[in-house]
Amino acid sequence: MSAPLLEARDLSVTFATRRGNVHALDGVSLSVARGETVGLVGESGSGKSTLAMTLMCATRPTGGTIHFDGREIGHLPQRALRAVRRRLQIIFQDPYASLDPRMKVRRIIAEPLVAHRFGSRAEIAARVRELLEAVGLPPDAADRLPSQFSGGQRQRIAIARAIALSPDLVIADEPVSALDVSIQAQIINLLQDIQQRLGMAYLVIAHDLPLVHQIADRIVVLYLGRVVEQGPAEQITARPLHPYTAGLLAATPTVDGTGRERLVLRGDPPSPINRPSGCPFHPRCPAAQDRCRTEAPALEPQPGGRAVACHFPGSVAPPLAHLLDA
To answer: Considering only CA atoms, which of 304, 305, 315 is closest in space to residue 279?
Structure first.
C-alpha cells in the first residue's frame, strides 16, 4: 500500500488554564489516503475542531507528529508551511463568520490565488469564474457581498475558496451543521461531485454519525480527545463495537407514528481537566465493569480493518434503549 497523504501519530495538544491543563487531544493517531474521505465524529468538546486546527498547523501539537505527503509538518516554521497550505485547505463550520462581510465574493475567492501567486489578474479572474460555476453560483455572484446570500450559498462560496488552488486534501470542519436539513444534502452532494471531478481527499468532521456515513469511506470516533473506534464506514454504522459509537448512532432523529423523537446519551462528557481514571467513557457506559474504572483500554486492532479502545467490544448493541434517555 502507498503511504498515507496525511498521517497523525500519537498527537497531543494541551492548553494551560487557570484551572489546570486542558488535554484537548491525547495520543490521537489517524490517516487519510489520497482520494479518500475520512469522517471524524464525536460530541461537542471531544476535540474535533482542535484536531482540525492542529492538522492545519494553526495550533501546534505539544506531542506527536503530523506527516503530509511524507514530510513532517507539525513543527515546521511558518515560512515553510506556506507551500504545504497550498495543498491543504479547510472549510469552516459557520458560513456567516468565515467570510469577510466587507469583501465582495470575487475578492474572497481570489484571496488564496493572490497569496500563492496563481497567475496574472486576467488568469485569476478567469479562475474565479470557473470556481463559481463549479459550486453552482452564477457569474454575477462575484460582484456581490456575503450578506446578499443565504447560508447554503455562503458555504458554496467558502467551498470555492477552499478548492481554488486544487488542494490534495480539504478538511471540512462541520461544513453543514449550521444549515437547514434540505441545504445540508445539497452541500454534501456538491462536495462529493467536486471530489469525483478533482480527486482530492477529505477529512469531514461532524457530530452526526449517519450523515458522515453518507460521504465517508472510513470513520474515526473521538471521545474526550482520544480515538475510541475507527474502521470502514459501513462496518462502523452496521455494528459499532464501542458503546460510545453505539450511542452516537442511536442519538439521531427517529420517526415513528407520533412524530420525531431524539435520543441522547446519558450525562455530559467529563472535564478534559479532571479526566476519569481508567476508560474515559466508563462514567456514562452501562457495560462498565471494575476493570474499566481503573485501566484505560488501548486502541486494539479488530477483524475487518477496524480498531476499538474498549475492554468489552460489542457488549452494547442496538437498539440501545437502556443506554439512552428519551
So the answer is: 315
Residues 232-264, buried b or exposed e (16+ Cβ, 10 A)? ebebbbeebbbbbbbbbbbbeeeeeeeeeeebe
Measuring CA to CA, how many Å separate 106 from each of 101, 151, 160, 274? 12, 18, 11, 47
Amino acid at 128: V
3-state class (DSSP) for residue 39: strand
CA atoms within 13 A on the CB side of 140: 1
- Domains of the chain, earliest start first: 6-87+165-239 (3.40.50.300)
Per-10-residue mean pLDDT of the chain, 326 residues long, equals 89 92 94 96 92 94 96 91 91 89 96 93 96 96 95 94 96 88 89 94 91 93 96 93 90 48 61 88 90 95 94 71 37
Structure-block grid coordinates of residue 65 = 507528529
Would you state the torsion angle of the CA atoms of residues 170, 168, 142, 176, taken in this order, to the nearest 10 degrees? -20
Judge contact between 130 and 109, C-beta under 8 A: no
Q: How remote is the C-alpha of 8 from its chain's centroid?
A: 14
pTM metric for this prediction: 0.89
pLDDT of 253 reads 58
The whole-number pLDDT of residue 257 equals 38
53: enclosing H helix or E strand: helix 48-55
Output the CA angle 58-61-63, nearest 5 degrees.
170
Q: How far is it, in rounded angstroms, from Cα 241 to Cα 312?
A: 9
Strands (E), the chain: 6-17, 20-32, 37-41, 63-68, 71-72, 88-91, 169-173, 201-206, 218-223, 226-232, 254-256, 259-261, 264-265, 300-302, 306-308, 324-325
Write the CA distances from 42 to 71, 167, 220, 236, integer angstroms: 28, 26, 9, 13
**Cβ-contact 191, 172 below 8 angstroms:** yes
In this prediction, residue 252 carries a pLDDT of 65
3-class secondary structure, 20 = strand
